[in-house]
Design goal:
globular, seven-stranded mixed β-sheet
Length: 125
């Protein structure tokens, strides 16, 4: 069992940055692929980024490459999402998730076993 708690969301102006954090409980954190998803109002949940258990493989949705960076700290059992040059269209609830699948990196919500409660990110123009 893995429990995930996100933090770091908030209101930011366009062009600004935010860093989301996801704290994971459970001894097996290091064996899970960790991912970030987001869901805007009226839209489906969208893959953002994922990191394999050892962080040897990292993937992003193409449209976000270069602006978002995922990283994980196996000592602190956390996964971070650094978001730069934020745009109003990045406004969404961001979710942290854990998957028992490794490679290829899982990118579908159905591939993930555990989810956090989500944190709201709002980017004003």
């Amino acid at each position: 069992q893995v429990q995930l708690v996100e933090s770091g969301g908030g209101l930011v102006q366009a062009g600004g940055s935010l860093r989301l954090s996801c704290a994971a409980s459970g001894r097996t954190f290091s064996s899970y692929t960790m991912g970030w998803f987001r869901q805007a109002p009226g839209k489906e949940r969208e893959f953002v980024a994922a990191a394999s258990p050892s962080s040897s493989t990292i993937g992003y949705t193409d449209s976000l490459k270069g602006r978002f960076t995922i990283s994980r700290d196996t000592v602190k059992n956390t996964v971070l999402l650094q978001m730069n040059s934020l745009k109003p269209e990045d406004t969404a609830v961001f979710y942290c998730a854990a998957s028992s699948r490794t490679l290829p990196l899982p990118t579908r919500p159905d591939d993930y076993n555990y989810w956090g409660q989500g944190t709201q990110v709002t980017v004003s123009s």
